[in-house]
Amino acid sequence: MTELLNVAGLSIAARVAHRDLPLLADVDLTIGRGETVGVVGESGSGKTTLARSVVGLLERNVRVDGGSISLAGERIVAPGLDRTGRVRGSAVGMVFQDASRSLNPLMKVRTHLAEVLRRHVRDITKDEVERRSAEVLEQMRIADTGRVLDSYPHQLSGGLRQRVAIGLAVVTRPSLVIADECTTALDVTTQTKVVELFRTLVGELGIGLLFVTHDLMLASDLCDRIAVMNGGRVVEQGPALTVLDRPREDYTRRLLAAIPTWT
Ligand SMILES: Nc1ncnc2c1ncn2[C@@H]1O[C@H](COP(=O)(O)OP(=O)(O)OP(=O)(O)O)[C@@H](O)[C@H]1O
Questions:
Q1: Atom of ligand 1 nearest to the CA of 42
Q2: Which of 45, 50, 218 to mutate for ligand 1's pocket (most ligand atoms within 8 Å of CB)?
Q3: Alpha-carbon gap, residue 151 to 162, rounded angstroms
Q4: Which of 11, 18, 23 for mutating ligand 1's site (highest number of atoms within 8 Å of CB)?
Q5: pTM of this prediction?
């Protein structure tokens, strides 16, 4: 499998009250084209910090101390180096927990998609914007694309809004998509549909997917490989079924034991 994302020995710290607080320590992670990798762990384990570091969306008091991140062989993050602006929203798409936060409430879906396309696709024509906007909604398995294009976010259901948010992330045809707890706010049925959609998209578009979730079962359902984080470190990493059936680390066993239906 061709390597797409390579996180090597990544260490990140936050400056708090004149002291450095380590957030990530020596994190290694790779994602291939067409591969889905789940990052799981309890709240505060560093999942979001890892996801945001790939797209340069770390807070201002946070900096990269060591290691690097490369995308398709190009180094985009290292201490003192931040080339994430070149790939954010174009080669790397992002979907966050709350679709309403990635969607502007004052903008119709049509305007939103057009804005993203015009920002990232040089010299795109009006016709091409129309064509690709409708096409991406069809890829999201949205039936009545005309109505959805002409809707404001609040006129859509939560599931539909998250589909539109995923559409916005993939409309620029990225090679990598980062999804951070993007199903957490949804009810179980809608969650299942969104997971199914991701599975299809990865297959159809051959993208790499970094799927952040606190839900180990959900990750094992969707992902080829899983990285388990604890205290800013990746404590265990491997094929999803191996991590689930034969966890090597006590921490992973404790995460599994915390799932009520897991016996
Ligand atoms: N800018 C910051 N300044 C100080 N501490 C921070 C900063 N950002 C994150 N942290 C701390 O780093 C730790 C990891 O946070 P992070 O959001 O990456 O974890 P997470 O696994 O995604 O958790 P959650 O599921 O709750 O979002 C937490 O203890 C958090 O409080």
A1: 21
A2: 45
A3: 14
A4: 23
A5: 0.94
Residue 154 DSSP symbol: G
H-helix or E-strand spanning residue 14: strand 3-16
Question: Residue 14 forms beta bridges with which residues?
Answer: 21, 62
Q: Tell me which residue has its CA closest to atom 13 in ligand 1.
A: 44
Question: Is the C-beta atom of 233 inside 6 A of ligand 1?
Answer: no
Greatest alpha-carbon pair distance for the chain in Å reads: 56
On whether the CB atoms of residues 225 and 191 are closer than 8 A, the answer is no
Which run of H or E residues covers position 191? helix 188-205
Is the Cβ atom of 27 under 6 angstroms away from ligand 1? no
Q: Going by DSSP bridges, is the β-strand pair 92-95/81-82 parallel, antiparallel, or unpaired?
A: unpaired
**Which ligand 1 atom is the nearest neighbour of the CA of 45?**
21
pLDDT tens digits in sequence order for the chain, 263 residues long: 789 999 999 999 999 999 999 999 999 999 999 999 999 999 999 999 999 999 999 999 999 999 999 999 999 999 999 999 999 999 999 998 877 677 899 999 999 999 999 999 999 999 999 999 999 999 999 999 999 999 999 999 988 999 999 999 999 999 999 999 998 888 889 899 999 999 999 999 999 999 999 999 999 999 999 999 999 999 999 999 999 999 999 999 998 888 876 55
